[in-house]
Amino acid sequence: MTDITLLGVPIEDGAGRRGCAMGPAAYRTAGLAQDLAGLGHHVQDRGDLAPDLSGMQDDRLVRPAHVSGWSRALFRAARDLALQDTLPIYLGGDHALSIGSIAGHLAAAEIRGRPQFVLWLDAHADFNTPATSPSGNMHGTPLAYLTGIEDASALMGAPLPARLDPGNLCLLGLRSVDGPERQLLRGSGALAHDMRAIDEAGIGPLLRPFLDRVVAEGGLLHVSLDVDFLDPDIAPAVGTTVPGGATFREAHLVMEMLHDSGCVGSLDLVELNPFLDMRGRTTRLMVDLTASLFGRTVLDRPTTSY
Asked: Could you state, in order of their start, the residue ranges of all structural domains in the chain?
């Protein structure tokens, strides 16, 4: 049995369209807590986070003060949760929330003396800096801040206490990467698998060596799951749809492998926009994937009718 803490982060200031703020409520309505409890886990819901006030200014970015306020508040909350005997699930909210969640877990890993790894399940690399971002939307910048390519001091109100080692980062499912961002990603040393690699090698053989390394090094693993990792035919409720994403079974296999590894210590569920959903289809799929990560198997999956 795992002790799980749900924390809503209703941020939509980092995205290009509104609706992600409804994500935490959608997960609760879809029964995420009940499904996890039904698998034998203890689940507590701490409600929704509130952002700090921030005066950050950057004319290259959209709503930087708002994203900064969320990042600072979530950093503290995530660091505190990471030092407790619980597994946090951060209910988004757009992908800018990962700046705060991962920064908090990096700080806690530093205190605990263990390496922090990150699995980034996303159609996009999110390696843009304010200078390279074509839109200025900050949900495309988290990994640039977290790896230190872009200084996070103004965003977070202080330098990050620990940075993400790009060698401990695996991006899986890429299929839309901006030109300058691509150069930053290639130069970082991060492990990056696009959909062609998945088509050619299969998703399991690409993921397994990374998980084996996390286990071998006694690492802590943070998983950041973006709805657009999935093919929009099965998960339409996202404002950044890119055709050709992970299939239903590929996505469940990733979650099942993560469960088997036993090394997942925290999880982001991001970019769900219920306003774009069809009868809750995407929300329900994200809940099902989370249940797979926490032990639901193929044989005990309930029948779902859409």
From this structure: 3-300
- What order of strands is seen across the sheet that includes strand 42-48? 42-48, 3-9, 87-92, 264-270, 220-226, 116-121, 169-174, 191-194
**For the ranges 20-29, 32-41, 175-184, 296-305, which has the lowest average pLDDT?**
296-305
**Cβ(229)–Cβ(171) under 8 Å?**
no
Catalytically annotated residues: 95, 122, 124, 126, 139, 226, 228, 271
3-state secondary structure the chain: CCEEEEEEECCCCCCCCCCHHHHHHHHHHCCHHHHHHHCCCEEEEEEECCCCCCCCCCCCCCCHHHHHHHHHHHHHHHHHHHCCCCEEEEEECCCCHHHHHHHHHHHHHHHHCCCEEEEEECCCCCCCCCCCCCCCCHHHCHHHHHCCCCCCHHHHCCCCCCCCCHHHEEEEEECCCCHHHHHHHHHHCCEEEEHHHHHHHCHHHHHHHHHHHHHHCCCEEEEEEEHHHECCCCCCCCCCCCCCCECHHHHHHHHHHHHHHCCEEEEEEECCCHHHCCCCHHHHHHHHHHHHHCCCCHHHCCCCCC
pLDDT of residue 277: 96
Mean pLDDT to the nearest integer, 245-267: 98
Superfamily of the domain at 3-300: Ureohydrolase domain (3.40.800.10)
Q: What pLDDT score does 305 carry?
A: 60
Sign of dihedral through CA atoms 128, 133, 134, 139? positive
Placement of tokens 């971002």 in the chain? 133
- Percent of residues, the chain, with pLDDT higher than 90: 95
Going by pLDDT thresholds of 50, 70 and 90, the confidence category of residue 304 is: low
